[in-house]
Amino acid sequence: MEQVVVIHPLDPDDASMIDRIRTATRAQKGARWTIEARQQYDALLEGVPPSDGVTFEPGTVGGVSGVWVRPASSRSDEALLYLHGGWFHAGSARAYRHLVGHIATRAGTRAFVPDYRLAPEHPFPAAVDDVLAAYRGMADSGIRRMAVAGDSAGGNLALVLASNVAAKAVVALSPVTDLTLSGATYETRAEADLYFTKQQVADLVHSYLGSADANDPLASPLHGRLSGLPPIRIHVGDDEVLLDDSRRYVERASAAGVDVRLDVWMGMPHGFPALIGAVKASAQALDAMGLFLTERLKAGT
Length: 301
Fold this sequence. Notes:
This protein has helices spanning 12-25, 37-46, 93-107, 126-140, 153-162, 185-188, 198-209, 243-255, 280-298, and strands at residues 5-8, 55-61, 64-70, 78-83, 111-114, 145-151, 169-173, 232-237, 260-265. The protein is of the alpha/beta class. It has one domain: Alpha/Beta hydrolase fold, catalytic domain (Rossmann fold, 3-Layer(aba) Sandwich), CATH 3.40.50. Helix 2 runs parallel beside helix 3 (93-107). The longest helix is centred in the C-terminal third of the chain and has 19 residues, at 280-298. It is globular.
């Protein structure tokens, strides 16, 4: 039986790069997020180097606008729904197109990235409604085999979807699984985390949820139904306050009989798979994602 938790040691070259990033980001750690910060966040993701041969096309699926990401080679009856991160307050399909291009190329399938509605203008459950509409729109278009992936808040939405649709597979990168913020790593990784503080996260969660209950399974997949889910792979950095969100989700999913695996990358910060060309762990995690998605999408053909 495959290991449920796999620990990846920190490469010395990666350690040097992360130290440089830590120095560069120290002044911004825990800063309050505003709507004006969306442009900054998008610019950060725009910096991901493009993957060769990938084309992009605006589209609308299930009434939700977004971007189609098409690698040079893909299988026509398959697709990936990719849900971007940004703590439910930032991120866009266009900004994420290059990162998703790397995943789609490795998986050999096209991907749709929806521009789901963002808080605070559109609080919970607007984002959930949008990604569910996008998934159903893809299914209604005749795509027979679909997988779901996402990072951070998008990982939350991907795992919420997993409990409500019949996806072939789910990949989540540093997912937010528990909006009650009860994970111990908010304290034990408080110093190690490059970007976030518990107070900062609490403000974002309050802005997203409004008066909704943080224990609602549509808000916190950790508290949802876990039996009967499709195969799930989760990747997370060891230096994240969100580490326990991944660990506890995988523990509960495994206990419920789900085919689930957690890859913990030592010394890696939140969002490390986007550091393409900068850290070796990025390519290794993306390769693992691509292989898993390829195998699952081909299964049963």
